[in-house]
From TrEMBL:
Protein name: Substrate-binding domain-containing protein
Organism of derivation: Arthrobacter sunyaminii
Keyword Signal: yes
Gene Ontology molecular functions: carbohydrate binding
Pfam family, one: Peripla_BP_4
Similarity section: Belongs to the bacterial solute-binding protein 2 family.
Residues spanning the signal sequence: 1-18
Periplasmic binding protein domain boundaries: 55-311
PROSITE patterns: PROKAR_LIPOPROTEIN
Gene3D superfamilies: 3.40.50.2300
Length: 347
């Protein structure tokens, strides 16, 4: 049985507020004038403590800096809400174990489930079971194969990440159609990797470029270093590289340093603190990174509370929480890195 976290008051890290601020700020028609009563779609109604909501949270093992940040932001979001009781299942990369965790949440009769599946397709059936049992499921990051399995879905913009990276490279290379562009992807079997690559290719096509050399790693430092070494050996000339993930980017940069290559610039992905410090230094081939918010599960916790308490998002006129929320994928450069560094996660 997952342990119940003891509730205590604490501040959410700044990063958690960036992605979820719209949930608790703003006003709706009817809030003006001072005489109207708070509604479940008003700021006051959102913030008002309601009946205790028991939320089950399950995610993959935190064997990656981004996943660790996902988990810590979710815990902080719950601890900041006095009417939320969070039950956390042990992180796992075993889909069958995660299915059993969700089944336990269903048997326990929790009020809502926030689920970052190790495999979206594999967890679809059990998420559907929860939904059919009257338990709203908030799907985070990796989508279920059926939209009806989730009451709400919170996603980073994987396609948009690729577009942002491609647009940055297009702007830098400025019509040089002979430029050689390389791509270091994550796990090719994952839809999120496929979406990132598709967005990247589409953006490059708009300025007459394409991906000349491509390798896929595994979101690990060792994988990033090994595949980048292969890439550099196969490509004697490169003008720009997009690396999908800043955690594996530690290995990517190590391979580049070992090879003594610096004729190109690189764009990262996810927005880790160490990547931003590289950008800030101005002495690295890493010039930019594209944010993939690590606050998605924190958003999910807040949305689960709103849904379970029959509340809505105060900045929207709509009186229900939206079905699907896709977060932005901004580019961090030396010009704006100080704005994003305080909210970045450590690899």
């Amino acid at each position: 049985m997952p342990a119940v976290l003891k509730k205590r008051k604490m501040l959410i890290p700044v990063g958690a507020f960036l992605a979820v601020g719209a949930l608790v700020t703003g006003c709706t028609p009817g809030d003006e004038g001072g005489d109207s009563q708070p509604t479940n779609a008003s700021v006051e109604g959102n913030e008002a403590e309601g009946d205790t909501v028991v939320i089950g949270f399950s995610g993959p093992a935190a064997d990656h800096g981004w996943l660790g940040a996902i988990n810590s932001a979710a815990l902080a979001a719950a601890e900041d809400l006095p009417d939320v009781e969070l039950r956390v299942a042990e992180g796992t990369n075993d889909a069958n174990l995660q299915i059993s965790q969700v089944e336990q949440f269903i048997n326990d009769g929790v009020d809502a489930i926030v689920l970052l599946p190790t495999d979206g397709a594999a967890l679809t059936q059990v998420a559907t079971q929860a939904t059919e049992a009257g338990i709203p499921v908030i799907n985070v990051d990796r989508e279920f194969s059926s939209p009806s399995a989730a009451r709400a879905t919170v996603l980073g913009d994987n396609y948009g990440m690729g577009v942002s990276a491609g647009n940055y490279i297009c702007e830098k290379l400025g019509g040089n159609n002979d430029a050689v562009v390389a791509e270091i992807a994550g796990v090719d079997s994952l839809p999120l990797t496929q979406d990132r690559s598709r967005g990247f290719a589409d953006a490059l096509e708009s300025c007459g470029l394409d991906v000349d050399n491509r390798v896929a790693a595994d979101f690990t430092i060792a994988g990033g270093e090994a595949t980048t070494s292969q890439l550099l050996s196969a490509a004697p000339k490169i003008d720009a590289i997009w690396n999908h993930d800043d955690d594996q980017g530690i290995g990517v940069l190590a391979a580049i340093d070992n090879a003594g290559r610096d004729e190109f610039f690189m764009v990262g992905g996810a927005g880790s603190a160490n990547a931003m410090r590289e950008i800030q230094s101005g002495e690295s081939v890493l010039e930019a990174t594209v944010i993939y918010p690590s606050t998605q599960a924190a958003d999910g916790i807040r949305l689960a509370r709103l849904i379970a308490q029959d509340k809505a998002m105060s900045d929207l006129v709509e009186v229900e929480v939206p079905k699907r929320i896709v977060l932005n994928a901004p580019v961090v450069t030396q010009e704006n890195v100080e704005q994003y560094l305080p909210t970045a996660f450590e690899s």
